[in-house]
Queue: 4 jobs
Job 1
Amino acid sequence: MSKLVESPAWHALKFHHAAIETIHMRQMFQGDPMRFDKFSLKLGNLLFDYSKNRINDQTVKLLIDLAEQARVPVWIERMFNGEKINSTEQRAALHTALRNRSDRPVLLDGKDVMPDVRRVLGLMRSFSDAVRNGKYLGHTGMPITDIVNIGIGGSDLGPLMVCEALKPHASQNLRAHFVSNIDGTHLTETLKKLDAATTLFIVSSKTFTTQETLTNASSARAWLVEKLDAKTDDEQAVAKHFAAISTNLAATSKFGINPHNVFEFWDWVGGRYSLWSAIGLPIALYVGMDIFEELLDGGYAMDEHFRSAPLDMNIPVLMGLLGIWYGNFFGAGANAVFPYDQYLYRFPAYLQQLEMESNGKRVDRDGNPVDYDTGMSVWGEPGTNGQHAFYQLIHQGTRMIPADFLAPLHSHNPLGEHHAILLANCYAQTEALMLGKTIEEARAELEAQGLHGEALEALLPHKVFPGNKPTNTLIFDKLDPHTLGMLIALYEHKVFVQSVVWNINPFDQWGVELGKQLAGNILPELRDVTFTSRHDASTNGLVDYYQKHR
Ligand code: F6P
């Protein structure tokens, strides 16, 4: 057995779990009128209510013991101080330096990274200002009206999610589009709406080797050159209509991107943590650099909290530990996220990469297979859509699915009673998940509806809700850039806390890199009919089928 599973803190939690498993949250709330005050925290305008969890004082104490045993505070400092905690790639994980709004230096191998960070922020400002105010002109002398980000994974999901979330701040003169999928449909459908003369492509790729991104970028370049009829001076057209964001400057120059339009970031920024870097350029273009910097301010505010708050008052620490409580002790395999704010509709998709790519690991930092569960699957949809689709399984299914509910007090779009109804739904769901409906309550309800006898008895079991389903609720004033920055950094740190307890490296992604390799093996076999496939029978059969029916 691993050290973690044999550790005193783990044992104590196992023992405690056996005792608390049978206690219903109804009883917990009835027994403690101060439960909300005790189990909620405020940071700026963010309220974190974790009282609807299957915990008591002792649970929190034992979870904090687990965090201390794992030396979470030491690891937090290691990360902020630029230690190479991404051990399999020998890299630091310094995304926090990108939003370091203090004048504190951040040292990496003895060198302060902050001058470079500030230099690139300055370049982003001048470029985005020039595009937004119409001074940056395309090949035919027209200002830019549409930007198209071409990237995938962290080079797509973060900027896309933030652009959607901050839409109320967007320029009326600039539209943002995102192309990620290698499926030609994605690029084709996007290009249909565009005028090449007023379109700027931003090729976003940390490595600048990702097949999907480079293929989409090459096709976009061919489209641009054809549309502008610029074959004779296509280099000039590409120079005006393409920008790139990458750590691989040699590759961006090989692609033919004007060095003035290349924005650099560094290998110490993980792809899924990169929206704070130049990868955020589409955000700066869409909403302006001032708003982008407010997003950074929000991330920084959460960083300061994470670094300085005691563990039992530390929101990312508590969220991370609650996830471990359900994942490792109650056997939960999924974590749902429900933003009751339409602008956050891509937040669950963004969190999927953040959490699942980071903590989907089967060996510990020393390479030993773990004998405990690690990352959970993450999914969700904006409220109230999810309610009319899959909440049924959370209310009455057999599995425990802890859920986070996020909602603003104020809407950007006050419209009659809409926002009050939205919020009422959000609160009602967390209440119903916690309380459930007892058999007595269900019976009384059916009787009040005039049902009796056999008909009532037949329907009764279907009307019972066990409740006792855990939720966190995050309430904020309004979805502004600062709040969004706080929320993103909160989840980043939650994921980190869990990785520390599980003793895994959250900053590599060897599993997804395998996919790139495997597709590379099959592609020549699809291209060439004479190629003999050398895979398993199923894969050979599928390759042959394509060859016969193409
Ligand atoms: O899918 C694996 C991955 O490496 C992600 O981690 C990353 O965000 C994505 O590919 C895109 O990589 P790049 O920015 O290098 O194109």
Job 2
Amino acid sequence: MKIHEYQAKDIFKHYDIPVPVSCVARDTDRVRTFAEERGKKVVVKAQVHVGGRGKAGGIKLASTPDEAFRAAGEIIGKRLKGLIVDKVLVEEAINIKKEYYLGITIDRKSRKNVIMLSTEGGVDIEEVAARSPEKIEKLYIDPAFGLKDFEIKKLCVKANFHKGLSREFAHFLKSLYKLYLEHDATLAEINPLVLTEEEKLMAGDAKILLDDNAIFRHKELETLQEIAEDDPIEQEARKNNIPYVRLEGDIGIMGNGAGLVMTTLDMVKREGGSPANFLDIGGGGSAEKTRQSLELITMDKNLNGIFINIFGGITRCDEAAKGIIEAIKSLDLSIPVVIRLAGTREEEGRKLFEAEGFEVGRDMNEAAKKVVELAGAYRARRENM
Ligand code: GDP
Ligand code: MN
């Protein structure tokens, strides 16, 4: 689960990690008022779940309240990489002397948490990793011993921190690591970690990912979840307990089993199509669950086609077919639907579909090709209307 920068920075404050004075604003007036109150240069930051907001125009520095007001007007209500920005974080601007990268995540290979520190801050860490991996210092933490002072010292030497700064960094890192453990996070990232002109360390940005499977251990985070969600369809899916991930394309995908759905996404891509979502209806596939799933998929107004991929095991294809047909009829869909069935009682299922006039692919390849074709035609027709 992702949370917003402002939510992450709230958590930082509780752990004594320095962050700029700030407020969250949903309108431009609030931004102006904040800038007036502080009487300083401010930075206006879009609060949506996308990376690289800076480059995309979602981060703006402003020297005066009027400038802040205008900057907010250019961000609030606008789209940033496809998502509408409905709120911003306004902060007192930091006087940046140097930007570092600091992150903690799980290294699955070594089965340890790993701390990463880089002098190449402010840029995408993936970029640094690809271009100059030697500029990322890594510290693997032995779960039996935890984070040791001498290890932090070594890290500071590598980053060329002077003595005073090393002491501050040690405190900073220990707090971040504590927060990371106590929240069952899978990532805690500060990019940039800022060394200010005043020689202080401060979190310029904040990203925390929480382990979905551990959220139940943190009642206080459940409310965060509600607020953190940007996408209304994903929110609805979560309520109905349906694994759904919104993607950027126009072909709705559903199947039974996560692996099958992933493969379906790949197939559609290979045929030149673009999936609109990931949705796993799981085993059983009751008519009710099928209808809910279809309803979810079709909440996406970009949709031009639907691909339903069913593997019959314990779930019988003919049972699944009945559920799907009923669901499609009850929703009165006009979008083309392509089905692929394999496994237990496949033939019976296919006959049920064909009797209703549905497109059933012979195999996954053919079905993928078909749905891409039909979606293209549907899109063209929509555009001409
Ligand atoms: P991201 O692009 O989504 O990662 O957003 P960040 O919060 O990391 O901001 C991107 C960049 O904007 C930073 O690396 C800084 O260079 C710049 N920036 C952000 N906040 C401030 C600030 O308070 N003062 C100054 N001078 N630059 C800032
Ligand atoms: Mn950043």
Job 3
Amino acid sequence: MNAKELVTVIENFDIEEIEIQRYGNGHINDTYVVSQNGVKMLLQRLNTNIFKNPEGVMENIVNVTEHLKKKIAANGGDPERETMTVINASDGKPYFITESGKFFRMYKFIDNNLSVDKAQSTEQMTSAAETLGKFYHMLDDFPAETLSVAIPKFHDTRNYYNRLMGAIENDVAGRKASVEKEIEFVKNHEFLADILNNGLADGSILLRVTHNDTKLNNILFDAPTGKGLCVIDLDTVMPGSVLYDFGDAMRFGAASGPEDEKDLDKIWFDLDMFDAFTKGFAAEMKETLVEGEIKNLVNSVKILTFECGMRFLEDHLNGDTYFKIHRENHNIDRARTQFKLVADMEAKTAEMEAIVSKYCK
Ligand code: ADP
Ligand code: GN1
Ligand code: MG
């Protein structure tokens, strides 16, 4: 993205004197902080190779954040800090498309926030889970049928399994021979691919409005108090299962190290973080969850971790076309941490189940 093009984008959001910097470490979109007279805004280029209906994504986000703002105000909260605020472009639309077709949107920057990849304490983890639980409660009465599907089959684990088998077959980047061990691991865990789909199909797991991308850095904390503040990165808000969110949050937040750690001896599943998150999640959600959801909380953590590992492995085999990479073999390093975590979760299943039973009585 060249500087001239960025200036044109910013002018189309009625902003003139600016400073602009790259920001954040997401794998999908390009994020910038723009400031004018000391007021910060967050500019993002949405990845339209991945989000094929970007207008639909923005409509979802506008509707969801308007709904949340009403709820937050009614609860006596601060609607400008506890959810995102979309800034419209000069033509009144919540996005701007450049001549070459690049899709941009702008948000108010939430000041005094803390954004972390790893929780600094178990208390922070509990608070993150409570923030997510409150997000669901505020969306309880959101009309789910109005949401466009941002990415079809986004957490359809079976679909990822089948796609991966296709990628292995095609081996377009010639990398298959170097990842036989990982392929073997996936094949031995095929049984994880249908559990959530089956539960949704037979009604034992409910379809709700969910976030679907609950990495810890998608929950902002209030810097002064350290408490959970706001759920961000709303691109994938769609009908889904809370188990997608619980599992994904623990895949990332209860990992002992970064998602791309090369030294697998440093990667294990941290039961203290799992305990802390489950505590906060249950405090908010235990009356809402049905039996089939509670029964699958532990499974969901294994499944979402397995799924993410398959997605990284597929991308490695396809020659790195989906997730941003910053070094050679980045995606396979990521896949390996995920599979190491799944194996460790399997070894710790009894402890994980005991934690769920303790909080979801
Ligand atoms: P990606 O989809 O690439 O992960 P995000 O929407 O998560 O992009 O944004 C990347 C990072 O930018 C976040 O992890 C967070 O630290 C920061 N961020 C996003 N939105 C805001 C906001 N409205 N105010 C302050 N920081 C934000
Ligand atoms: C992507 O955009 P970001 O970095 O928050 C991905 C998630 C993965 C995650 C793995 C739209 O999330 O599904 O779990 O990377 N988002 C999309 O770190 O594919
Ligand atoms: Mg993000």
Job 4
Amino acid sequence: MIIHMMKYWLCGVAFFLCSISNNYAQKKAPDPYGPVPTENQMRWQEMKYYAFVHFSLNTYTDQSWGFGNEDVKLFNPLKLDCRQWARICRDAGMKGIILTVKHHCGFCLWPSKYTEYSVKNAPWKNGHGDVVRELADACREYGLKLGIYLSPWDRNSPDYGKPEYITYFRNQLTELLTNYGPIFEVWFDGANGGSGYYGGANETRTIDRTTYYDWQNTYKLIRRLQPDCVIWNDGGDRADLRWVGTEGGLVGETNWSLLNAKGEVEWNMLHHGLENGDSWVPAEVNTSIRPEWFYHPHEDGQVKTVPQLMETYYNSIGRNGTLLLNFPIMPNGLIHPNDEKAALGLARAVKEAFAVNLVANKKASATNVRGNANEFGPDKSIDNSNDTYWATDDDVTNASLTIDFGKPTTFNRFLVQEYIRLGQRVKAFTVEALVDGHWMQLAKATTIGYKRILRFPAIKATAVRLNITGSKSCPVISNIGIYNAPQILAAPSITRNQSGEVTITPADMESVIYYTLASGQPTSKSKKYTGPFPSEGKLEISAIAYEPATGKSSPVSREKFDISRKNWRIVGLADEKANLILDGNPSTAWHQSKNEKMPIDLVLDLGGEQKLCGFKYLPDQGNTTGAIAKYQFFVSTDNTEWKLVDEGEFPNIKNNPLWQTRSFTPINARYIKLRAVREVNGNNDAGYAEVDVITK
Ligand code: FUL
């Protein structure tokens, strides 16, 4: 009897031990693979979307970069209301605000005790104002985090370029990191060194970006004063976050959150990360809601439209990045209503697009599940929690997960997330749909990372399959979402070629274009566009894309063309390709470099005398070299005697290669000469996508 009982007892113990070890196998999570995010980076990544605010003396001078000698007395934002900024940001779904507390001109938005060039000498609040304090308070009230942009380049400081400046810079950083509560991110811009006021020296000061700032010690200071803060640095030693190589609002489709800690970082690495990088340095996509960073009244009609912002959303947050969207503040201290409308419109569009997750309560199955367990089953990818995940056995790097809708379901978006605390793993994947019993491929992509969103034309299917076709180690998928986003029509593009032919191109095939030859609001009752049409002389066109099936229409596109360029000729050049700069197409470009040393001249014959009052220059949109940083503009009636009518710099043209428009006192001329005095990188190369004039 006793023996019998012991047998049962032993069996029980054995069963117990067995289930513990089984449970252990089930519970054993994959080991991290490669670099992983720090807690700070993780917290930052989860913020996803936050604001930039550009505000400084530039706001009052209509400049992009101040020289450093602008009068502090200009700073007087009579209606400044940081609570308005914070309210808009919160309502727009943003989680924080990064303020340009000091831009390149050196003017400080807080009363720094280390310089006189600050709000303390401005008329605003009789010198008792502190924008950083007001914003810190507003952020706290609206549940937002605060970040600071402190420009390393300071065109006002007499010490810039000397070792003393580094002490000054760190003193300012210390003020900012100790007096205003928690700071979530510090932003160190890469524009460094060049001409400036420098306390009256009025000279050019170059610095060695690799050594001058001694970043490592500055980083130590930041970590000591604000241990939870992330550091963004474009110009110096690798920090916590990276720039994506463009201010256009997109990161590469392939986007690894990795880079190497040491060595040169080429453009490609910024844009795509580095598959085998040794450090976790994720991408932050910074872009402005208007073409420029600071407020310029002439851009009030150029605020990005909701479809454009939505595109930015998909190309940043939807590609494993965060989105840092800029609001330029007006001279009165407020965000312009057009910018507010656009940001809130984006928030609404995002909400609508991702309103219903079609995977809710559906069944998921997988070709492989780690340890046969419940812990890492495919259902963990659709359980609405980012902390659980589907994982396969360690040696399985190709696997599929199927979600069965149970009935035909229409969708056009696929969202997928990796559990990045264990590293970024997936290198390639496809998405398939089961339509009438056959699997068809909807999309093929590379990296996933924290979040990837794929778009495709709406499809009706009974099941969806995610195929991981390449992964560094076993895939670890924390979330999948499937949505049917309402279509948003993008505004069409309008171009005019050299012979005057106008082409209007819709962004999608289903829509019809209507236009007016004026600045009004086209509707579906306006003239229907049926193909390219000829035009002469000055012309203004407004167009919309309209979808007959839904009655929806796009935002309006507007283009203004000046005199016809039909009889224009490029003087003294045999290269046929040079005509690309007059073809009206912003994506074609031509460069002149030869062995010529700067300056490089471009001479155009307008075919007849015109009353000129300005010119426009668009740098090559597809090339990081060739943009003209410093220019002179001459006019002539006979191609012999030239008169200099304008000169200056195109600031920030390298990072933000927009149309550059300059005006001058009206003058009659037949010939124009655009002289490239300096190229952005100091090369002997001048690149042009388009050159145009403005006439009286
Ligand atoms: C650039 C700066 O030079 C611009 O003025 C702006 O602040 C942008 C965010 O970064 O590199």
